[in-house]
């Protein structure tokens, strides 16, 4: 890479810092930027420059938006009585891409991870509790944190806090957790113990 112009090298070096981008891919992307029309490159540059300044959190669900309230919370056709709690915006996008859910969300922006010094106070749990406070008409809270140890710990912590809120406020919303187990097309011989255990526990009438 030493023979490349310095500005091209610096772009490639920066791209290598992105998740999943190695040296060869970074070089290909840098050369791609060199070949695209200047107008397209300028638009991309402007968007990058404005990214931090224009992007903010929705004041209701903490989704990312350029406005005070995100498009999901503003949509009158969404089921406002159901909240799905997700760790980050990418998890929210997975639900939206699949078009499988018409409720609203609450984005935690993290999960409890003591090994990396992330505690309950570092994620957006208190904001969820305030949202469910006086005047709320929520009927169900779906805990959709990831199925690793940290995600499970986060879901359990939130469940306990929600149950405390229910006792204090006499609210009667459901607290549910995403079902999980064997994926479609899976062979039992390749499934691990915990996956099989959860699949048995979450079995449905057939």
Structural description of this entry:
The protein has 2 domains: 6-54, RecR Domain 1 (Helicase, Ruva Protein, domain 3), CATH 1.10.8; 67-179 and 194-198, Dna Topoisomerase Vi A Subunit, Chain: A, domain 2 (3-Layer(aba) Sandwich), CATH 3.40.1360.10. Helix content is 45%, strand content 12%. The protein has helices spanning 6-16, 23-35, 38-54, 71-74, 89-98, 125-131, 149-169, 193-201, and strands at 56-57, 64-65, 79-86, 103-107, 140-143, 174-177. Helix 5 links the parallel strand 3 (79-86) and strand 4. The model has no long low-confidence stretch (mean pLDDT 90).
Compose a concise summary of this entry.
With 206 residues, this protein is an alpha/beta fold. The chain has helices at residues 6-16, 23-35, 38-54, 71-74, 89-98, 125-131, 149-169, 193-201, and strands at 56-57, 64-65, 79-86, 103-107, 140-143, 174-177. It is globular and about 65 Å long.
Shape from CA axes?
globular
- Over all CA atoms, what is the radius of gyration? 22 Å
Largest sheet: 4 strands, parallel
What is the CA–CA distance across the termini? 60 Å
- Uncertain stretches of 5 or more adjacent residues: none
Write down the CATH topology of the largest domain.
Dna Topoisomerase Vi A Subunit, Chain: A, domain 2
Q: Report the structural category.
A: alpha/beta
Q: What's the total count of β strands?
A: 6
Percent strand equals 5-15%
Read across the widest sheet, the strand sequence of neighbours is 4-3-5-6
Count of domains: 2
CATH class of the largest domain: Alpha Beta
- Helical residues, percent: 40-55%
């Amino acid at each position: 890479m030493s023979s490349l112009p310095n500005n091209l090298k610096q772009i490639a070096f920066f791209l290598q810092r992105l998740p999943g981008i190695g040296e060869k891919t970074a070089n290909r992307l840098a050369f791609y930027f060199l070949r695209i029309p200047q107008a397209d490159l300028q638009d991309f540059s402007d968007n990058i420059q404005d990214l931090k300044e224009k992007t903010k959190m929705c004041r209701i669900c903490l989704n990312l938006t350029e406005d005070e309230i995100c498009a999901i919370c503003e949509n009158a056709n969404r089921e406002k009585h159901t909240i799905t709690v997700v760790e980050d915006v990418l998890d929210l996008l997975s639900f939206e891409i699949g078009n499988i859910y018409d409720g609203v969300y609450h984005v935690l922006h993290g999960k409890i991870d003591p090994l990396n010094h992330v505690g309950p106070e570092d994620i957006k749990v208190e904001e969820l509790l305030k949202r469910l406070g006086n005047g709320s008409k929520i009927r169900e809270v779906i805990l959709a944190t990831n199925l690793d140890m940290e995600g499970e710990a986060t879901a359990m912590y939130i469940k306990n806090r929600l149950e405390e809120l229910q006792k204090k406020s006499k609210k009667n919303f459901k607290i549910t957790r995403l079902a999980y187990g064997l994926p479609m097309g899976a062979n039992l011989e390749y499934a691990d113990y915990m996956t099989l255990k959860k699949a048995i526990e979450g079995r449905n009438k057939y």
